[in-house]
């Protein structure tokens, strides 16, 4: 299976999703602690080993106008670290509105009885799934600055 891991980088948590290129679908699998800009590399190493992705996709937080901001620089640093650590291609994808879409998906799943309120902690992983699905479907073009 050709798979990719997607990441929603945040100052406290990093949402992680796995996606399948054949189906262009993704699902959230984890929310990894990020303490003082130091990700839990042990957990990330384990996910990489378990899923054996061929590509890593990192959401790039931009302002509504498409400009970079401090969070953008932090996500770029994380993407560079991933590429150096795992020797895999890393793609940056515009993540504008992904958190809102993830929240809507969660609300719909909760209304359908598929999720509980306690599952809200996994919203970061759901946001990573949205980012990854955008890339898999070709809706979002890779951004400059990383491999594609």
Shape: globular
| DSSP summary: helix tally | 4
* C-alpha end-to-end distance: 19 Å
Rg over C-alpha atoms, rounded to the nearest angstrom: 14 Å
Percent helix = 25-40%
Secondary structure tally: strands: 6
How much of the sequence lies in strands comes to 25-35%
Q: Could you spell the SSE succession in H and E letters? A: EEEEHEHEHH
What multimeric state do the chains show? single chain
State the CATH architecture: 2-Layer Sandwich
Task: Specify the CATH homologous superfamily.
Answer: YqgF/RNase H-like domain
* Low-pLDDT segments: none
CATH topology, anyone?
Answer: Nucleotidyltransferase, domain 5
Mean pLDDT: 84
Q: Return the CATH class.
A: Alpha Beta
Strand order of the largest sheet: 4-3-2-1-5-6
- Number of domain modules: 1
Structural class: alpha/beta
Biggest β-sheet strands, sense, barrel: 6 strands, mixed
Task: Give an overview of the whole structure.
With 148 residues, the protein is an alpha/beta fold. It has a single domain (3-137), classed as Nucleotidyltransferase, domain 5 (2-Layer Sandwich), CATH 3.30.420.140. Helices cover 39% and strands 26% of the residues. The protein has four helices and six strands, in the order ββββαβαβαα. It has helices at residues 41-51, 70-86, 98-111, 123-137, and strands spanning 3-9, 13-20, 25-35, 38-39, 55-60, 90-94. The chain has a six-stranded mixed β-sheet, with helices on both faces. β3 (25-35) and β4 form a beta hairpin. The longest helix is centred in the middle third of the chain and has 17 residues, at 70-86. It is globular and about 40 Å long. The two termini are 19 Å apart. The mean pLDDT is 84.
């Amino acid at each position: 299976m050709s798979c990719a891991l997607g990441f929603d980088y945040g100052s406290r948590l990093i949402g992680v999703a796995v996606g399948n290129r054949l189906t262009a679908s993704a699902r959230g699998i984890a929310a990894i602690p990020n303490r003082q800009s130091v990700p839990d590399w042990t957990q990330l190493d384990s996910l990489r080993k378990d899923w054996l992705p061929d590509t890593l996709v990192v959401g790039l937080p931009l302002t509504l106008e498409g400009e970079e901001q401090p969070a953008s620089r932090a996500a770029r640093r994380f993407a560079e670290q991933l590429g150096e650590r795992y020797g895999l291609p890393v793609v940056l994808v515009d993540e504008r509105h992904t958190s809102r879409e993830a929240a809507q998906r969660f609300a719909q799943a909760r209304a359908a009885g598929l999720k509980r309120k306690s599952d809200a902690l996994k919203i970061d992983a759901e946001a990573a799934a949205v980012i990854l699905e955008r890339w898999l479907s070709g809706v979002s073009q890779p951004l400059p600055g990383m491999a594609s």
